[in-house]
Amino acid sequence: MTQRITIDPITRLEGHGKIEIFLDPDGNVANTYFQVPQLRGFEQFCVGRQVEEVPLLTNRICGVCPEAHHMAGAKAADAVYHVDPPSTAKKLRELLYSAFYVTDHTTHFYALAGPDFVMGPDAPVAERNILGVIHKVGLEIGGQVIQCRKNGHTVIEMIGGRKVHPCTSIPGGLTKGITEEQRQEIEKMGRWAIGFAQFSLKLFNDIVLGNKAYLDLILGDIYTHKTYYIGMVDENNKINFYDGKVSVVSPDGERIGKYGPGDYSEWIEEHVEPWTYLKFPYLKKVGWKGFVDGKDSGVYCATPLSRVNAADGMATPLAQEEYEKFFATLGGKPVHQRLATHWARLIELLYAAERWVELATDPEITSPKFHTIPTEKPTEGVGIVEAPRGTLTHHYWTDERGVTTKVNLIVGTTNNYAPISMSINKAASSLIKKGTVVSEGLLNMVEMAFRAYDPCLSCATHSLPGKMPLEVTIHDADGNPLEVLKQFVE
Amino acid sequence: MIAGNLEANGSPWNSRDSDLNSLLVIGLGNPILSDDGIGWRVAEEVQKALQLGPDGNREGAEIDFDYLALGGLSLMERMVGYSHAIVIDAIQTGLEPPGKVSIFLLEELPDYAQGRTTAVHETSLQTAIQVGQDLGAPLPDKIDIVTIEAEVLFDFSESLTPEVEAAIPEATRAVMNRIDQWKVDQKN
Fold first, then answer.
1. Cα–Cα distance, B74 to B89 (Å, whole number)
2. Is the Cβ of A49 closer than 8 Å to some Cβ of chain B?
3. pTM, whole model, 2 decimals?
4. Which residue on chain A is closest to B70 by alpha carbon?
5. A184: part of which helix (H) or strand (E)?
6. pLDDT (average), residues A150-171
7. pLDDT average, residue stretch B39-58
8. Residues forming a β-bridge with A436
9. What number of other Cβ atoms are within 10 A of residue A140's Cβ?
10. A481 exposed, middle or buried (CB, 10 Å; 0-12, 13-18, 19+)?
């Protein structure tokens, strides 16, 4: 008789993912399935609208990273109108985006990663949350986390017009700029953010890297997959969140190419599995070989870890120092251990804070030239940014009036659906052995594999038919059906 | 610790001066996700009713409205500085018919509601409120939750399903009753 273990819901994550682990008669893991509830019809919802409205709609896909959708949408709308925004507009957008990154990465570390590492995977459930973290690291630090979020929201509101769902990006740039007084305030908050990011890295260093058990956990085989990695880089192959080309590196660390927004469809294709409507993107040039890692499998990853692997370094000095330490500590590039994603995220946090200050002190940033009026006939365009959770691609097609006829989105979390599924399976298989009691801590370690990716499920499931699969049959190694799953029924 | 070197930036909670006589009404949900938009619709109706009502919305006190698609820490942060909050949101228990209006205090909110009422990307609203309180945030003493059982929460649409739409007047009255009660409490 097959035993089924369900972890439901995956706590501390957007959406309601469900991990199903199937054990064989001996009590070992037979199969794992990771499913998410589907939000349906977003792409259809966007069709038939003025394209400049779409960046305002896409940021409503979910409440977690509206800024990323707004930016990818704005860049796609620029491309639809064949208009290049003035450099001030690009810098203001990137400044907003840097503040957003600082806010988002900080929240992730203290609310999601922190419970796993600061409290520990075996800590009681009641303490394994942000509340436990702030009581352990100190209420003063908790206050700094809130301060950091407040500062980020202030910058987003100054440039984006609203605290959470920015609305100022239009084809050709922005609807408003910033004053010198605002610039000074933004610069001051950015300098504070650098200190806070450095503190967060020190905390990680002290608590995680200073603990041999955690380091062994990170470096162990359980959370390791040798996949391809993608991430956006600037002209010097340094990480950039807002603009550039997407670098693709192999499991050996070799860069096999870079693609611009217009070429994404030559690089990325999507695989369909019968048990889920969420698709599995893979590298077209390598091909889909199933849920396996290695150089012959087109499975790739798009996360903070992927970005540091896919780039040659960080564009700011303090983050570059941390980048070098990261690879020196973890044994060179690329780093395949998924739990190192938490560390990579903190390096990105520092970079985002430094970039925030760089942009806030740029002489052009208060220029009134923040918009170029589009004059070309609208057609089709692609916009790519790095969302905190992975490369985000928006592709819009319009008629000659600029009314959308088709919309396609490949969101950060979707990129990682295959590697997430693989990580869950590997963690479960490694941690649940014959005779092992499945304790809460053990199950949490399965979830830890998942949380490293910080998947945002509500926007990963945007384009789906109106019906979910009714049942799925699991087969054993000989192809015999083991169990029919009916929990898919709505 | 490096934190000691961080420039003191004052209290992180000073975005709004705390007002002991203030009420925040929040329409919660995603306005383009079918029935998830019900919270906004009801909040709009309440706001209209107060503006049109004989006594306006002022009786020596303040009522603010906000329309949000947030949860957890972000939602908690929006409540800072208010003495009372009313959150209106869709809920999907599967135990009640679509359109069923329910009223809870936050602490009475059943576990099964947490997913819909709060985005759980970072933490639940209850935990976030606790975080805020532990960090000294001036948060509402009382948080009323008015929920409307939803039917469709996974399809993008600006329309509500008929049963949920039909619940708007009842939900609006429920919120108005809470507001009236709050006014009475203010006088006492």
1. 16
2. no
3. 0.87
4. A63
5. helix A180-204
6. 92
7. 79
8. none
9. 13
10. exposed
The H or E element spanning position B171 is helix B168-187
Residues of chain B contacting residue A199, judged by C-beta atoms under 8 Å apart: 1-3, 6
Which CATH code of 3.40.1380.20, 3.40.50.720, 3.40.640.10, 1.10.645.10 fits the domain covering A84-220+337-367? 1.10.645.10
In angstroms, the CA A137 to CA A212 distance is: 19
Residues in B lying within 8 Å of A, measured between beta carbons: 1-3, 5-7, 9, 11-13, 15, 30-33, 68-74, 77, 115, 119-123, 127-128, 130-132, 134-137, 154-157
State the span(s) of chain A assigned CATH 1.10.645.10.
84-220+337-367
Paired with A258 in beta bridges are A247
- Six-digit token string for B148: 């409307």
DSSP state of B33: B
Examine the pLDDT at B48 and tell me if it is beyond 70.
yes
pLDDT of residue A396: 96
- The verdict on ipTM greater than 0.90 is no
- Look at B120 and A14 and tell me if their CB atoms are within 8 Å: yes
Comparing C-alpha atoms, which of B17, B138, B131 is closest to residue B74? B131
Minimum-distance CB partner of A195 among B2, B11, B72: B2
Per-residue pLDDT tens digits for A48-100 = 999 999 988 877 776 567 899 999 999 999 999 999 999 999 999 999 999 99
Q: Which tens digits make up the pLDDT trace of A213-231?
A: 888 888 888 889 999 999 9
* Chain B neighbors of A108, CB-CB under 8 A: 122
Per DSSP bridges, beta strands A268-273 and B101-105 are: unpaired
Say which of A129, A142, A192 has its CB closest to residue B6: A192
> Number of CB pairs < 8 Å for A and B?
130
Name residue B104's beta-bridge partners. Answer: B145
| Residue reference for tokens 């999507």 | A270
C-alpha A50/C-alpha B76 separation (Å) is: 35
A152 pLDDT more than 80? yes
Q: How many CB atoms lie within 10 A of CB A310?
A: 28
Among the partner-chain residues B1, B30, B154, the one whose CB lies closest to the CB of A60 is: B30
**C-alpha distance from A398 to closest chain B C-alpha (Å):** 20
Distance from CA of A337 to the nearest CA of B (A): 23
In this predicted structure, what is the pLDDT of residue A456?
Answer: 64
User: Rounded to the nearest 5°, which phi and psi values hold at A353?
Assistant: -70, -40
Cβ–Cβ contact A332 with B under 8 A: no
Asked if A64's CB is within 8 angstroms of B154's CB, the reply is no
Q: How far is CA B147 from the centre of its chain?
A: 10
Q: Is A400 in CB contact (< 8 Å) with chain B?
A: no
Tell me whether A205 touches chain B (CB under 8 Å). Answer: no
